[in-house]
Amino acid sequence: MIQIPALRFGKSYTSLEKATLVHHVTGEPVAEVSQVTGSMIARDLGNMERAHKELAAIPIRDILAMYKKAADYFLNAALPCGDTELTFDQYVRNLSATTGSPIVFCDRNARKVHYVLGNIEEVIGGLTRGLPLEALDSGYSTANGRMQAFYPTTDVFGAVLPSNSPGVHSLWVPSIAFKIPLLLKPGREEPWTPYRVLQAFNRAGVPANVLGFLPTDHAGSADILRLCGRSMAFGDDRSMAPYKNDHRVEIHGTGYSKILFGADQAEKWEQHLDLMVEAIAANGGRACVNASAVWTPKNADAIATGLAQRFAGVKARPWDDPHCEVSAFAKSEVAEAINNMVDEGLKTPGARDVTQEVRGTPRLVKDGRCAWLLPTVIRCDSPEHPLANKEFLFPYASVIEYPHADVLKRIGYTLAATALTDDAAFIAECLACPNIERLNIGPLPTNRLTWDQPHEGNLFTHLYKQRALQHAPRAAREPAAV
């Protein structure tokens, strides 16, 4: 069993209290992860001003070179993992074992982290909207005769991380390039990716005293969000509610992402069936950018049936099967609770589970310790139905028929939307819609992201604020000659 210590900004720490991670199939222990307390977190954060200054003094070009090395180490090297070393394949296998996400999903999403590490210049160029790299050294830049100046909002960036997919870790990876020390609280079942990234950074030359890996409990997570000047956190609407109005915390929560048919494309829905399947089910349907609703002015019954027929063949497969399409739940009681929520919603008139009608078998599948939820398409008669605006940790989507002219007034918050239309007027309305954060126009699934454009917050503008800056001419600053 692997022993994974906390990393207290340059000091490895093994605690008496540990969290035991088990294999989701066998129940056998895989790792023990040392835990830290809130007082330890507060003590470590007291050293961040000095660490921040040390990181800020490293030229940005040198940091970018470290990222290139770290990308290579992350993918190709055997890196320390507590009291052992893991190759990339071994890391992926352990990641799958404790999270329940199939090996094929874990491998694919871990490579997204590798991509961000290896293409960090492109990523930060998008996040800063083309700010010259040297501005990260000087704090300002002059472009087209206009001064742009920025200052850091914090000495450390805290991230309270989830366990659902390694792809989310690409969101905090650029923080070292922005010269802000990093404090990571890993998800309980997913310490593997953040620990490996920090080890790759360390081997590439990033100072260990700017890298923190602090596994902790719920109270410790709250301490991180309270004590760090800037942070990000992942969770559902209920767990993130206390931080909704806290500008220091960038929330990554429920996405309510949607596919919106324009009136000009609703008759051509079959041409977009592959797109809808990908948007709903890619990566096991667990991402905030997976579509959880399809809104159309017509043909809702046909769309729901078409999707159900495509999803009816999806089966629960073992974690190491390369053809996996859905993830197992490491805790079967979580799958059972979600399944009960859907069934309870169906008791309200005005909705039906079209996939179950086509498939003829239940959505909940159990085998030993494991449980899966098969893709589910719910045809809702109106947006008011309890299942019309829901999002779950498996491929789930409601299909709603609603008048084209009023749809944007009714959809509510939408992290990612795909507008299937060539109607210039509808496109203009989508561009102006304040409810949509990320907009794909045309046949681009909601889950298709580009790394040079942020969604659900911009890490650079979270870590830096713009300031007014004027330099007096040198002659005005020098004493007059006598």
TrEMBL record:
Pfam family, one: Aldedh
Domain Aldehyde dehydrogenase: start-end pairs: 17-220, 269-407
Name of the protein described by the UniProt record: Aldehyde dehydrogenase
EC number: 1.2.1.3
Species for this entry: Frigoriglobus tundricola
A molecular function GO annotation: aldehyde dehydrogenase (NAD+) activity
Entry keyword set: NAD, Oxidoreductase
PANTHER family cross-referenced by the UniProt entry: 2-AMINOMUCONIC SEMIALDEHYDE DEHYDROGENASE (PTHR43720)
